[in-house]
Amino acid sequence: MPVSTYVLTGFLDAGKTTLLQYVLDQQGSRDMRILVLQFEQGETELNHLSSSVVLRTFSPKRAEAEPEALASEIAELFAPGEEPFQEVWIEWNGMLPYALLETIFLQPALKKALRIDRVIHLADAKKLDVLLTG
């Protein structure tokens, strides 16, 4: 059965990691096994993760250069015999095309393991004016 997957996307400093930290803090009290995949190297880091959270970080450059290899590496986390995840959270760099995320997660190795339920795009209203007029 595919695992519910949530994607957080937005530009640098939009609050993706801050929101993800909040979600993980809330879910930690529910003792859920959660996989977090970060395709982002921002200024904020995730802290105080519970032992039920598995974090993997990938550089945006690697995502662009090796999408199929990345999909295979992520799929290994879902191999038979591995403890199952109840949720997957993806932090996606807003400067990368969303089509690249689809390329990675629609690979046969992952297509059956994950089900993207929600995509949440974050924007900082104060910075949005600068980005749109800049």
Task: Write a compact overview of the structure shown.
With 134 residues, this protein is an alpha/beta fold.
Account of the protein in words:
The structure is a single chain. This protein has 134 residues and is α/β, with parallel strands linked by helices. Helix content is 37%, strand content 26%. The protein has a five-stranded parallel β-sheet, sandwiched between helices. Helix 3 crosses helix 4 (98-105). The protein is globular.
Topology readout:
Layout: E1 3-10, H1 16-28, E2 34-39, E3 53-57, H2 60-65, H3 67-75, E4 87-93, H4 98-105, H5 108-111, E5 114-122, H6 125-133
Parallel strand pairs: 1-4, 1-5, 2-3, 2-4
Helix pairs in contact: 3-4
Oligomer: single chain
Mean pLDDT metric: 87
Q: Strand-and-helix sequence, N→C?
A: EHEEHHEHHEH
Q: Would you count the extended β strands for me? A: 5
pLDDT < 50 stretches? none
Class from helix and strand fractions: alpha/beta
The helix fraction, in percent, is 25-40%
Strand content: 25-35%
Q: What is the topology, as strand order, of the major beta sheet?
A: 3-2-4-1-5
- The rounded distance between the terminal residues' Cα atoms is 45 Å
